[in-house]
Structures are given as structure tokens and as C-alpha cells.
Amino acid sequence: MGYMNLFNKVNPTKKTSMVAALTAHYGDQGLTRIIEAAKKVPTTSTMAKHLQTEQIQRWMADKKTPEALESEQVSAVCLDIFRPF
Predict the structure, then answer these.
(1) What is the distance between the alpha carbons of residues 44 and 28, in angstroms, rounded to a whole number?
(2) What's the domain of life for this entry (predicted)?
């Protein structure tokens, strides 16, 4: 996270987030799987929960629906969390 903060400070017109960078590389489905795996490990669960929250906020900002994400085969666990929003 420190790198992202530094990057955003040095490049204020190109600000990004960890989720944006990871989604660009792994896609929504891949990142969801990574987050779900990381939530099961005590040393990474807190960071994974933060990333999951950011991922859901990003989906909401992008106006993605659970149905659209389902068609992208995003994890059912993450969709269950996202549906109430």
C-alpha cells in the first residue's frame, strides 16, 4: 500500500488504487478468488477484507450489477456480499 500512496503523490493526475491495479492484471474473477483465499490466512485476512470492500465500492462506482458480475463468473461468495448493496 505504501507504493500506491507514493505513486499517487508523485503522479496526482494518474492516481490509482491497489484494487484497480490488481483488477487490471487479474480481472474481477481472478482478484475475487485471490481475496477469498487471502481471507482464510490469519496474516492476510485484514488486508483481504479491505481489498474486498474497495472492490465492492469500485463495482458500485462503475454501476456493475450482481447479474453482470455473475456473467463474468465472479465468486458466489463475493456476489452474496455485494447483492444487498
Answers:
(1) 19
(2) Eukaryota
Question: What pTM was estimated for this model as a whole?
Answer: 0.71
- Degrees (nearest 5) of the Cα angle 59, 72, 28? 50
Q: Which of 18, 37, 20 is nearest to 75 (CA)?
A: 37
* CA pair distance 72, 53, nearest whole angstrom: 19
How far is Cα 44 from Cα 39, in angstroms, rounded to an integer? 6
CA 76 to chain centre: 15
